[in-house]
Write a structure and sequence with these properties.
rod-shaped, 14 helices, five-stranded mixed beta sheet, 620 residues
């Protein structure tokens, strides 16, 4: 744990304003859903519209988070806000920082991922300029912006991402032109930021610069805005003036002066005052007693005193007692530096009005990460001769803030302005850097191709539907014709049904008569056929008839065949020929279907030899 001497002035001041808060966290955060997760709505993908948006502002020593719900009926809803102290020595890109960022986002957003995440790119890694191009067709805009920006901005296209936003049409010297805000950023910085969030499982929806994020406050109607408004951000080493017209960012300029310049002016003034005081004490008589000793002021002490102007508290760690300085005195001592800062703002606004030919602003908002002393705000407005105010979008009086920002000071809320601006982002604006104008044009081209394909498919479907209905009508006509033919068939059937039944009945009667005749006389015909063809040397020993099942419903059996056995006598050499002639004669009979010689063997009969045989006969 660092010692008090190792703690920077900024950290000391941040700890002071937290007072009784939980270390590292703001006391006001929004409620997460009862399950701790953001409800999913079934929409996925980078371009999918998501109702929840989270702004992530990674400062040098604090993480600031704001979560809002995008309106479905024009009403924004602030779901939560939070700021957490980043431990000293923890830098972006380290595993420790990744674990810290993941845990804080999961704690703040829940484990769901149905929300968009926007982050700020570092100001020193991005350049924002306002240019004007000749009015050209949509397909030529990108080239026109590129070459115009190339003249005004020095950048390497291989290492730089160029993104821009068309602000609208303007007339310059009678020529219609397009006003364009151009943003250039180092590819490496953008990729590093993407990697930071991808590695922790919270992929970025967009990454943008602070001026573009601020215009969300006005475009989303989160705050009341006059037609021509400017915002002055007072940073540590530099400040920034942003000019807005009807909610659009029309110009932004960086100013090389900030709170550090004020701290240096304070330190210089204090040293001069201390030196003069010492000389006065040296010139006094010894009876006056020794001079009251005061601690020497360091630049860190001066920064603490300057930052203390922005908070609703006394100067930290007893600096007021150590140096005998009130807030009014501090403001008086930093006035020269503040005057130089305001002069730079005035020059910028003169360029905007006189050189560019625009109307002057009528309101200016002043804000800082550490909050703003109201006399500073009044001083800026008085010097510029316009109305002024503190940029406090989370003020309790704002209908969108709800109860979350209640019971907080302006200084506490000032930290969250950039994060809130990010949470109000959406893909059409501001420029997201990771999804540039060129990418959007390619995506739009793909969507146009998809629409053509869908349209062609719809036409084909309509053709098929037409064919389907045409075939349906054809089938209906065929079915009608078939119904007519069926009706005609039924009528014809009724005409011939009676004669047909009579013929069938007569046929059945004749069949039964023939069957009865067959059953009655078939045995005699069989014996007669056997006797007719039997040779004189052949004697039948046994005749056996084979019967089968009768007709259905009849008990009487039908004769299917017969088996006869006999013997051939006479000359031994003629046995085979006599038997063969007998079998052939049987086959030639018209009442026998099949005649089969089963066996023939020579045996003894009456002290002589004979040929014994067995024949199977199948009837028709």
């Amino acid at each position: 744990m660092p010692s008090p001497k190792d703690i920077s002035s900024t950290e000391r001041l941040l700890r002071l304003i937290r007072n009784n808060e939980k270390p590292g966290e703001m006391p006001y955060t929004g409620d997460i859903s009862p399950s701790g997760k953001v409800k999913k709505r079934g929409t996925q993908g980078f371009l999918a519209k998501k109702s929840i948006s989270v702004g992530v502002d990674i400062g040098p020593d604090e993480l600031r988070l704001v979560k809002i719900k995008q309106p479905s009926s024009g009403q924004w809803e602030l779901l939560g806000c939070k700021k957490v102290l980043i431990k000293s020595g923890m830098s972006r890109g380290t595993p420790e920082f990744s674990d810290f960022l993941r845990s804080e986002l999961e704690r703040f957003c829940g484990s769901g991922r149905d929300f968009s995440v926007w982050a700020l790119i570092r100001s020193d890694k991005v350049n924002v300029e306002s240019i004007r191009i000749t009015k050209v067709g949509k397909k030529q805009i990108e080239n026109a912006v590129y070459w115009t920006a190339k003249k005004n901005i020095v950048f390497d296209e291989k290492e730089t991402i160029l993104e821009f936003e068309i602000q609208g049409e303007v007339v310059e010297e009678g020529v219609a032109k397009l006003s364009v805000i151009v943003c250039t950023a180092l590819k490496r910085e953008v990729e590093e930021m993407e990697d930071v969030f991808n590695d922790i499982g919270f992929p970025l929806t967009g990454l943008t610069a602070a001026p573009f994020a601020l215009q969300n406050l006005f475009r989303a109607d989160w705050m009341t805005l006059s037609d021509r408004t400017a915002t002055l951000y007072i940073g540590d080493d530099s400040s920034r003036i942003d000019v807005f017209s009807e909610g659009n960012l029309v110009m932004t300029r960086g100013i090389r002066a900030g709170t550090n310049s004020m701290a240096e002016a304070l330190l210089e003034e204090h040293l001069i005052t201390s030196a003069l005081s010492e000389r006065r004490w040296e010139g006094r008589s010894a009876e006056a007693g020794p001079a009251q000793a005061r601690s020497p002021m360091s630049i860190e002490d001066a920064k603490d005193l300057v930052f203390s102007l922005g908070f609703d508290s006394q100067p930290p760690y007893g600096e007021a007692d150590r140096f005998g300085l009130s807030k009014e005195k501090i403001f008086e001592m930093i006035n020269p530096a503040l005057e130089r800062l305001v002069r730079q703002v005035e020059i910028t606004l003169e360029h905007y009005t006189v050189i560019l030919g625009n109307e002057g602003i009528n309101f200016i908002y002043v804000f800082s990460d550490a909050g703003v002393y109201q006399p500073v705000v009044d001083y800026v407005g008085d010097q510029l001769r316009v109305e002024s105010g503190v940029l406090d979008p989370l003020a309790p009086g704002n209908p969108f803030s709800g109860h979350i920002a209640a019971h907080t000071s302006v200084s506490q809320r000032a930290f969250l302005t950039p994060a809130l601006s990010l949470a109000l982002s959406s893909l059409p604006h501001p420029p997201p850097l990771i999804f540039t104008y060129s990418d959007k044009e390619k995506f739009a081209s793909i969507r146009r191709v998809n629409r053509v394909i869908v349209s062609a498919f719809a036409v084909v479907m309509l053709i098929f539907i037409g064919i389907f209905f045409w075939m349906g009508n054809a089938i209906d006509r065929k079915e009608a014709t078939l119904a007519k033919l069926d009706e005609q068939f039924k009528r014809g059937t009724q005409v011939i049904e009676a004669p047909a039944r009579a013929m069938v009945s007569e046929f059945n009667e004749n069949h039964l008569a023939l069957q009865s005749f067959k059953e009655r006389y078939f045995g005699m015909a069989f014996i007669g056929a056997l006797s007719k063809v039997i040779p004189k040397d052949v004697s039948l020993l046994n005749v056996k008839a084979t019967v089968g099942g009768g007709e259905k419903g009849k008990a009487k059996k039908a004769v299917e065949g017969a088996t006869i056995s006999g013997v051939v006598t006479g000359d031994l050499g003629s046995f085979e020929s006599v038997l063969a002639r007998y079998v052939l004669d049987l086959k030639n009979s018209r009442i026998f279907k099949k005649v089969t010689l089963d066996k023939n063997t020579i045996g003894s009969l009456n002290a002589g030899e004979a040929l014994f045989f067995s024949i199977t006969i199948d009837f028709f």
